[in-house]
Amino acid sequence: MSFLLIIYITLVSLLSLNYSPEAFQSDLTYGNETDRLALLKLKSELTYYYYQQGYLNSWNDSDHCSWTGLKCNREHPRRVTVLELRHTQLGSSFLAIPPDIGNLTFLITLRLMYNGFQGEIPREIGRLFQLQYLDLSYNQLSGEIPSSLANCLDLKGLYLNDNNLKGVIPLSLQSLKGIQELILYRNHLSGPIPEYLKSFHSLETLDLSSNYFSGEVPKKGIFKNTSACPEISISEKLDKDFPLKRLLLISSGVVVCVIILCSFVKFISRRQAKIEPSSSESPSTKWVERCLQMVTSIASVSWCWSCLLEGDLQPNVQTWPYPS
């Protein structure tokens, strides 16, 4: 009797689930739907430009592991491990990177360079605990580097160069002990260069150039041989000399305005002289010409100094290979 009761309960449970043959076939075809749904959401938020250019034509009802720019995991079928869309200018319609990308929790590689994305880096990327390579370079991303990236403990390469990022390098990133490449050049980062970087023994390539860091450069670890590199400009020099450069640039602008004004006065004087001819030039005309020559000389000197300082004051740190 108990055996029949168990069979009855099992049948009722199956019927209540409404498990149709179509659903069974869908599971066989697509397996885990988590990543597929996240990718479709990603597609819906990037609709206009994608559809116009046809970059996501393959993102349809087919198996998502066959879609453009994706690779799936063999050990965990239908889980996406690589998402790579580059040189597509997807962000040309003022689009940001959708936060739904944080739902692709099996991602190992995420590359979205050369796409013109704007806005901030989604904090949700910090949910990608298996991420090893993150490349968001050559976009127009702004805001600060999210501290949530510290959750990506397996990160080996972080490439955020050629954006508009500002603020300091987060202290929380000191958890990324295994990182091998940290590329942050050509942003608007400021503050001190983190001391913890010198303890990253796996770090092979570091590029912090063309930012606005201040303070002293660390002396140990990957920074050990910086004193032998003639291309490095210490931040103290930048802080000391940058006002002089700005003053010279402002002076050059004022001088240019004076030159234009003197040229206009000289033109009026000569025109008046033609109307009222005289045996010699008026004192005012000679004075204007002398002022014009003097101001032109000052402008030339200021411009030359500005050019020299431009070469000397490229801010901050270049690339250092880890000493062997």
TrEMBL record:
It is an enzyme of class 2 (transferase). Keywords: ATP-binding, Glycoprotein, Kinase, Leucine-rich repeat, Membrane, Nucleotide-binding, Repeat, Serine/threonine-protein kinase, Signal, Transferase, Transmembrane, Transmembrane helix. The chain crosses the membrane at residues 247-268. It is found in: Membrane. Its EC number is 2.7.11.1. It comes from the Eukaryota. This is non-specific serine/threonine protein kinase. It comes from Papaver somniferum.
